[in-house]
Amino acid sequence: MIIQAFAFYLFAAALVAAGVMVISARNPVHSVLFLILAFFNAAGLFVLMGAEFIAMILVIVYVGAVAVLFLFVVMMLNINYTELRQGFLQYLPIGGLIGLVLLAELVLIVGSWVVAPEASVKLASPAPPLDRITNTHAIGNVLYTDYIYLFQAAGVVLLIAMIGAIVLTHRGRDGVRRQRISQQVNRTREESVELIKVEPGSGI
Amino acid sequence: MSQLPQFTPILPELIIVCLAMILLIYGVFRGDGATRNISWIAVLGLLVAAICVSAIPAGKILAFDGQFVVDDFGRYMKWLVLLGSAVAIIMSLGYNERESISRIEFPVLILFATLGMLMMISANGLISLYVGLELQSLSLYVIAAFQRDSVRSSEAGLKYFVLGALSSGMLLYGSSLVYGFSGTTSFTVLADLFKQPATDPSVGFVVGLVFVMAGLAFKISAVPFHMWTPDVYEGAPTPVTAFFAVAPKIAAIALFVRVLMGPFGELFAQWQQIVILMSVLSMLVGAFAAIWQTNIKRLMAYSSIGHVGYALIGLAAGSEPGIRGILVYMTIYLVMTIGAFCCILAMRRDGRMVENISDLAGLSRTHPMMALAFAVFMFSMAGIPPLAGFFGKLYIFLAAVDEELYTLAIIGVLTSVVGAFYYLRIVKLMYFDEPAEAFDKDSNREIGVLMTVAAMLTAFFIVFAGPVIDGAEAAAGILFSG
After folding, report:
1. Rounded distance, CA A157 to CA A150, Å?
2. pLDDT, tens digit, for every residue of B372-426?
């Protein structure tokens, strides 16, 4: 028990510290690296809660794909960050306001359990107990059977996103040299090698 | 082990998704030269899917654990959507070739959008609703911006995307509230939840319902969620606008009706006022804002907003004749809109599209047949008997009067009089004004054929009225049989 509590406070503290560093770091590359650290700590917290599937997804999807993509974008785009930061204080009031609204909404959601007591009954998840089946197994049990229709449809949505990105941005460029393997293989010695008799002492 | 699910009910969807992927691969290998072939295969596929829709055994069938439903209502709406999409692909052929945006992805994206619409119509749960809606919207965002070298098209795509994402957010927020307060996403369970007279919905549930309605109202472009419509309609390439005006609108209306009459049917008292308000505002905006438009595509956008207002009257009535009225209205709307857009597509001068209403001046002397067809569509949209549009409005207003919604019916009649003003102004321009320069003569055959067929259907609706009204009657009945 004590080890769990220790691990929780370790992960939670590191998560909050990393979160603060994400928005306060001067160098955007450092920001992204702190973001990755925050993701890892959040994954640790999920493992502590027994939600190992979400923990792994967080590491694989967010760290493995999203954060790395961020890193690429930050490094590739040459943005002047000092200029971007200049309006920081100017936007503080409105940012704070949005934060307050979000906080109020969260309070309202928690409060709604008091308003509608029947809702909290619904919160008791229909998932099977953890000691009988791991939650990856439990998700797999329904995802590919009961929800196969939605699973496949979500796949089609992703396909459309891919087609859309290509349709809207891809342009065929002129003057690109493509590899044509058949041509390469079919080249004969006569086409590519030229023998020139050079007279000694006269140059070409 | 769970057994393999039933696949018969989703046969049309399966055909479309497989065809779309095969055509995509075929197109990638063959290049943009194959667009015409691919388009015709896609049209054929849509028609085959429409036949399959009829081939599914009659009655109400649930599939995939109740996430998917096929019933007479869905069948009727699917026919309309499939027809609308097929016609939109045919209409795009000539235009896309002339504007050199004839790329293989266009018919494929329309197929995917149609797939999304069919899934929306058959949705029987909040999750399948959202996935279907997103599938459709994502494809539509891309084809709105399909003419990517034109600033207006890109702007239309971007605007549509941003506002569409906002509406999806509202829909999701509402759905999460509904789920949170009821503990289910299934429409079947939700419908039974408030069957007992003693159970009242909690406030959170009703707030969720309102958000779901707001999200869906964006998709049918009902006022006050209509802001995107004129800009997107104007900016998008004309065949895309035609597609937007028919298929997605019909699918979204079907979804709106199914969601309100099905899972939330017992909360009629809660949502009726909202629907009445949206209906009145849509009719007013549709009638008055259209008067000052100079661009014909913007005019059609406001006209479609107005038409949605009339259709919503049927929903506000909440009765079987009301829903039948919506179905008849949407059928007629489909035919009229296709016809009107065929005329707009033929408005070309010196090889360039012209879109101003003033360009139509004196059309009766330069292109008498096209002017006649356009006049038929305009008279029909204004609701002048004996054309089709009159009957659409008649059934809607009768349903409203049956339910004693007299104010709504009177506002409807008054706004259609105002609407008649701008429709008839176009007719006056075509017949009594000095002719402007003639349009290009070489308009392609497909458009001409479609225009003629649509004009015939609109003009002689009385002849075809029987099957349409019977079909609509059966389709509306299923929503009330429980």
Report:
1. 10
2. 999 999 999 988 888 888 988 999 999 999 988 899 999 999 999 999 998 998 8
Residue among A119, A145, A157 whose CB faces B135 most closely:
A157
Interface membership of B68 toward A (CB under 8 Å): yes
| Contact assignment for A153 to B128 by CB distance below 8 Å | yes
Report yes or no: B142 at the A interface, CB cutoff 8 Å.
Answer: yes
CA atoms of B4 and A87, how far apart (whole Å): 58
pLDDT of residue B1: 42
Contact A157 B128 (CB under 8 A): no
Q: Does A65 touch chain B (CB under 8 A)?
A: no
Prediction ipTM score: 0.90
| Contact indicator for B335, B388 with CB cutoff of 8 Å | yes
Interface contact A122-B183, CB threshold 8 A: yes
A126 touches chain B (CB under 8 A): no
Q: Which residues of A touch B138 (CB under 8 A)?
A: 157, 160-161, 164
The model's pLDDT over B326-378, given as tens digits with 9 standing for 90+, comes to: 999 999 999 999 999 998 988 888 878 888 888 888 888 888 888 999 999 99
Q: How far is A197 from chain B (nearest CA, A)?
A: 47
Give the helix/strand (H/E) hosting A172. Answer: none
With an 8 Å Cβ cutoff, are B135 and A153 in contact?
Answer: yes
